[in-house]
Amino acid sequence: MTTLTARRPRIDSTNGVWLALGMTLIIGGILVATDGGSLFGQNSTVSLLQRAAGLGIVAVGQTFAILAGSLDLSVAYVISLTSLIAAETMAGSDGRVLPAILAVVAVSGAIGLVNGLLITKLRINAFIATLGVGLLIKGYLEQGYAGPAGSVPVSFQHLGYDRVGPVPVAFLLFIGVAAVAWVVINRSRFGHHLIATGGDLDVARLSGVRTDWVLIRTHVICSLCAGIAGLYLASRLGAGAPRVGAEGGYDLESIAAVVLGGTVLAGGKGGVAGTVGGVLLLAVIDGIFNQLAVDPFFKQVVRGVVIVAAVAIYAMRLRRKVVRKAAA
Amino acid sequence: MTVEAPTGPAALGQSRRGRWGAGSIAPVVVILVLLLVAVGIRQPDFYDPPALLAFLKRAAPLIILAAGQYFVIVAGDFDLSVGSLVTAEVVIAARLIDGDPGATWPVVALVLGFGLLVGLVNGLVTTLLLVPSFITTLGMYLILVGAVYTWTGGSPRGALSEEFRMLGRRGIEGVPWLGEIPYAVLILLVLAGLAILAMRSDFGKVLLAVGDNPRAARLAGGRVAGVRTIAFVVSGGCAAVAAILLGGFGGVSFQVGAGLEFTAITAVVLGGVVLGGGRGSVVGAMLGALTLQTLLTLLNLLGVAGALASAVQGLIILAAVAIGGLRART
Questions:
Q1: Which of A226, B188, B264, B286 could form a disulfide with A78 if both were Cys (CB 3.0 to 4.6 A apart)?
Q2: Closest partner CB to A128 (pick from B149, B154, B269)
Q3: Any chain A CB within 8 A of the CB of B325?
Q4: Which residue ranges traverse the bilayer (chain B) (predicted)?
Q5: In a domain, A224, yes or no
């Protein structure tokens, strides 16, 4: 029994999503081709990758939070806030791009710090803490802004519009962020502590991991990723937008992408590679439906079904593995 | 996520936590009284019975939603689908009734049935397919929003009949001293009574045990999957009732239920119920919803605009939960 499972390439939750992605690409490609279009044409590929970039960067940050056994519901508002900070600081001038980026890093990092401190020092449940912080930022945004504000110089719009061949620069940024995250999670001491904390907080603490400090850093990283996504959206829109994050549903969608990628919501299991797969899968489904000109709202129905079905399959595999172990 | 059932010292000894710790309703009662006093100072005629009843009428949908959400949360789960369910129900009702008074009662029955069905699906997917409820109900949220938009082609159609709206708007008129007793308040009282009875029954005790420690509950012979599923059905049913009342208050739009899932969860937590399950009372959850509604009323009276209100709301929730958490530790 054990030798059999050892020889067969194991499909666990994080590489399962790549299999699903491959199958979706093949089936979707055929469907679109019979419809007379092309899923792999220049235009559709570019817009597909473009869409994946924004959500992807947020989802990488969310992966950290979920791996640590936490989660961040404030990211959508952080995105809106940082897009405004970026655009207003730049105010259309090339020379102010760097200060704007620094301001975004400072503000998003500070929000992550507050999230982390609320969760660890005041012991507020992560769901409520980040929801409360999100409400605070939402209030500030709605009070201060009625519509788009600030403006982004043309030089900064390269981030949103340039591309290398069919690959947008923003997508490369997403892959870069994901690669750094992969190294941090899999190769650094912090990464190991992160997994340990998410796996079992008490065991990690008793083993000498400073779990509070791990969680605080995790939330700073998560918010910073949302800040980067805010910069990207500001560059894409040419201005800051007070509702771009909430309307894009980045909070729940990023969590969905992470879970779709096989990271366990309870923490401690999964990784950033799965998240990249999850983000791409969502983007490909989007792309297929766009090409087939299916009702845009129906897309959301399919998305909901896919997310639940994927997690159900992971859960089933996990259960089988446990049963096998128990039998052995 | 930090919603696992508490284990170790925190799960033991109800006595050590005392009257102020997690799960207790004392903090929410204090906050509610303070807010009610503040509202009374600002608007002295708030305490006239008719005004008070009108206030309760407005609060009824949120209190009912919070009661439903309580059953799910105390068993250690989440229901993120209730906001979209409320929207779906109102839009469905409007399209099916389409101004025809004769269709009212069949549609009311259908709306209730649909709510229970959505809850049943949530419960079965969570317990049989072992999908975390956060994901199940998030998926259901996407499905309901998408389906409703698809079905109506992007904007709500039809109209609710006057009979349908009566449930949320009107009441028994000409009652001495009280004036009008709104139907919404009567429905609220009945449901609140049922919820309290349910939590005192064996079902309620098993539900609490499941939320505290599902494994122990199962080993002790509790039908864990069964009670968790029922909790979701209750939540779906409550969302349906809330939708009927909300449909009476306002117009038909896709915004009716927007964000209500978070408001309901917030209300429940404000009422001293612990996310992750096992602790807290349904009375606390309903008081939490009443407190939240009072807070919004007060902010309104103080002239704090809708925008800043959400910031104040966020701050007060953080403060209330933080104080609860710190007290639980000492």
A1: A226
A2: B269
A3: yes
A4: 20-41, 62-83, 103-121, 128-151, 181-199, 225-246, 252-275, 282-302, 308-326
A5: yes
